[in-house]
Amino acid sequence: MGLQQTLDDAVTAGRMPFVVGMTASAAGVRFQGAAGEAAPGRPAAPDTVFRIFSMTKAVGSTAAMILVDRGELDLEAPVESLLPEFARLQVLEGWDGEKPRLRAPRGKATVRQLATHTSGLEYEFWCPQMAEYLTRAGRPSILAGTLDSMNYPLMSDPGTRWGYGISIDWLGRVVEKVSGQRIDAFLRQHLFGPLGLADTDVEVRAHMAPRLAGVKARGPDGAFVDFDLAPPSGPEFYGMGHALYSTPQDYLRFLRLFLNRGTLDGARVLSEAGVERMLANHLGPLRLQKMVTAMPQVTADFDPFPGTRVTHSLGFMRNEEDIPGRRRAGSQGWAGVLNTHYWFDLSSDLAAVLMTQTLPFVEPPVMTVYDAFERAAYAA
Fold first, then answer.
1. Segment 118-177, tens digit of pLDDT
2. Residue at 112 is within a domain
3. What does the pLDDT read at residue 322?
4. From residue 32, how far is each of 16, 61, 97, 162, 254 by CA, in Å?
5. Among 122, 143, 272, 341, which residue's Cβ finds the most Cβ atoms within 10 Å?
6. What element of type H or E holds 18?
7. Residue 297 maps to a domain
């Protein structure tokens, strides 16, 4: 099945209300297509504006890597040496009645551990203990956008396991501290400007608003209904775990930066050595764990490529084995909670995005489309 047919079938079969898919090589766009309406009366298109949520993480990690590449940031630096407030975070061991039982971590989390999700911080969406803590302690979710919302407890000691959470929000704060710039200003100067990403921002700017997609959630009857979810506007800090809006064509340009080993259209953002360092496996003997949902209305379980070794670079999920008919070993990727997905494969000179705006995240109908789209991209 061809790429456009895959997109058309996804909407016709009710797996997605709309979808945009694009592929590219280092040299440029290979395919762009869409199906369905991103908003009433407005067809989805490569320049449709999406809430990309956790696709922000790769951008925040790249900002940190720019500083590492310049020798301004040490990956082995304890986070608290740069952000003393991080030292307040303790490991949650359980409850004594209504009081959380906390202890000091056995070791200090490093910048590298933030970038690889091994700091001990985990989201409530896949960690029932964290969900229970936020509820019982009356604490805000990171999506509140307040500085106070960053004070999640650790769920494990730093460096002992991979656990997906708010680490990149803290990493963005590290970038602010080291650079002396607010993160959105840093990104505009050092990443968005050089790459020509005019439709990627922490807020929906006036020129982007007419192209903003709607959000849908799948109801109990399987039909999609309107749903309101977006990063907080005008927060106390822009969290690099979730804060960005972008378009498929902009994000594909960002991915082509890596296919081109740190440069795009004459603008060098990272050195070739910096890209190689960033994309290496930084988990050592650890690996990604199956993410079991604690909130089924938000996300399904996620177990990428079961039976194969999946690790993490300094910005992305990294698969250590070829996936037959799909990406090659060393490929990188991730996604946003509203089912915005991407991967890039240096061995095959291929990058791709597959984007809609729906919940639950990684539900089986969506992943069926993703599988078909990726196979079609390699067949092409």
1. 999 999 999 999 999 999 999 999 999 999 999 999 999 999 999 999 999 999 999 999
2. no
3. 98
4. 17, 27, 56, 34, 16
5. 122
6. strand 18-24
7. yes
Number of domains present in the structure of the chain? 1
Question: For the chain, which ranges sit under pLDDT 70?
Answer: none
- Cα dihedral 147, 152, 157, 162 in deg (nearest 10): -90
What secondary structure letter does DSSP report for 188? Answer: I
**What's residue 1's pLDDT?**
84
Contact at 8 Å (CB) between 359 and 24? no
Domain contains 189 = yes
Catalytic residue among 123, 133, 164, 370: 164
SS3 206: coil
Which CATH number covers residue 345? Answer: 3.40.710.10
User: Measured between alpha carbons, how far is 277 from 118 in angstroms, rounded to an integer?
Assistant: 18
Amino acid 167: pLDDT: 98
In this prediction the pTM is: 0.98
344: containing domain: 3-71+176-379
Query: What pLDDT score was predicted for residue 189?
Result: 98
206-240 as b/e: b if 16+ CB within 10 A: eebeebbbbbbbbeeeeebeebeeebbeebebbbb
33-66 burial, b at 16+ Cβ within 10 Å, e below that, comes to bbbbebeeeeebbbbbbbbbbbbbbbbbbbbbbb
Q: Is 342 a catalytic residue?
A: no
Specify whether 54 is catalytic: yes
The verdict on residue 127 lying in a domain is: no
